[in-house]
Amino acid sequence: MKAITVEPKKPGTARFEDIPEPDVHEGSILVEAVAVGVCGTDVEIVEGKYGWPPPGKTRLVLGHESLGRVVDPGPTGGFKKGDLVVGIVRRPDPVPCANCAVGEWDMCRNGQYTERGIKQIHGFMSERWRIEPEYAIKVDPSLGILGVLLEPTTVIAKALEQVALIGRRSFWELRAVLVTGAGPIGLLAALAARSHGLEVHVLDRMESGPKPDLVRALGATYHSTSVKEVGFEPDAIVECTGVGQVIADSIQAIGSNGIVCLTGVGHGGVVTAEACADIAAAAVLKNNVIVGSVNANKRHWYRAGNLLARADRKWLSGLITRREKPESFQHALDRKPDDIKVVIQFSEV
Ligand SMILES: [Zn+2]
């Protein structure tokens, strides 16, 4: 079968090639790939900055935002031929740490977890893949190809759960949320926050194009200013850019008792001790919490599935701005200004 593979940590090694059919030890459910979403992590792996092949192998099958159709449900019940499924990305570490032991692999303590398409397990960018029943999530069949948005939605399901849990430390009326960045994660954060009836503001550098339209279609407010200029004091900020200046501005702009939830992973230089002290002083004086959130556990996958199932299909379809064929995967990895979510489509839904 055909797959998109890469030799991790070696730039320029990605190719669309023939590989053996998936081995039964990878899971009792056999799935035919429908689509795989592309994100910044995939780009970084192809650029040689990140990623690990399975033990004893040199190449890794790329892709962690999956959607497929069950071809053979295997011996365990719960799935049938034709079901649309998405594969959970992370697997608990083998030790396991306390968090992995209770199914909170998203909170792994020792970093020995593995991830499909990223860290030591093949991903989903192959014509067929296998999955263990306990790591397969059924998606509402009426979503069709939109089910490929489930994995990025899980990131937001966890982030908003973190905000809600932390908010309970005091009397707190969450009203106005600022989302920084109108990429797929930011737009899904806006969708989720609106579904909770919150006043939602989304900030992005783009002044026109699909992003402002998608934000307004949710009944949210779009800003193409800096965080300092949004004109209100957010109760919570969901940071989805990973850009140093946006993070710094968010920490300054957050209201008293507010929460800044960081979901973007950026790169930058050294922070001076003085700047750290200023950030800490602002957090102390306003009782702020700055929390990082990564990955998702099964509870978040379940919640994300419910959110997508309830969402407006036309709005969701606006997030998928480009579909590429597997053999054109390089085009899928090239970022274009109006791209929101690009998917590689392996077969029709
Ligand atoms: Zn662990």
Give a structural overview.
The protein has helices at 40-46, 98-101, 150-167, 184-195, 210-217, 244-253, 273-285, 298-310, 313-317, 329-333, and strands at residues 2-6, 15-18, 29-38, 60-61, 65-72, 84-87, 90-91, 114-116, 120-121, 128-131, 136-138, 176-180, 199-203, 221-223, 236-239, 259-262, 289-292, 320-324, 341-345. With 349 residues, the chain is α/β, with parallel strands linked by helices. Strands 3, 5, 6, 10, 11, 18 and 19 form a seven-stranded mixed sheet that branches. Strands 14-13-12-15-16-17 form a six-stranded parallel sheet, with helices on both faces. Helix 5 (210-217) links the parallel strand 13 and strand 14. Helix 3 (150-167) crosses helix 4 (184-195) and helix 3 crosses helix 8 (298-310). The longest helix is centred in the middle third of the chain and has 18 residues, at 150-167. The two termini are 19 Å apart. The relative contact order is 0.16. The mean pLDDT is 96. The structure holds zinc ion.
